[in-house]
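Exercise: predict the fold of this chain.
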Amino acid sequence: MRLDNYTLSNYTPGAPYHQQLLWYFIGSPLIESYWLPVSSIKIWILRLFGSTIGNGVRIKPGVKIKFPWRLIIGDYVWIGEDTWIDNLATVVIENHVCLSQGVYLCTGNHDWNHPNFQLIPAPIHIQESSWIAAKSIIGPGVTIGKGAVLTLGSVTGKSLKPSIIYSGNPAQPIKKRIISEDMISRNAKNE
């Protein structure tokens, strides 16, 4: 491959240059900061830069987000410390999703057969009630089905089926996720 011939081709970051600079020098450092542990302020900043974010979202310190204008987050989402949302393409995180500590969402890859290492961005969609456990990695173009679990340190480059627990590298299905009706009833009473 010839990296000296690499270009972005028709890819764009999706925001004007001044917005990218403001994000890089002001927004991103504030979101990543351990000195600013308050989720509501981080959410306000992310919305200011173009993110769509629902209610009850918790964002822990150390979270990195490449482009907030390509981020859609539903209600009651938890994003753990040191999570990296590397969103060259859109990332959608639906309601009641937990991204544990150190999760990496990667929306870009390169064509290893292309002589100039062409960029291939593809979105990630994490459906409702899914849990992505600590240090897990999700690759470009992946959809995590409703209620699926990706266990500690697992890696997937393929979409996961709903309500299945996956583990390993590459992630393999290990069993069906069964959420107790008793727990659902107790939670509903507490709401």
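Check your answer against the key: The longest helix spans residues 17-32.
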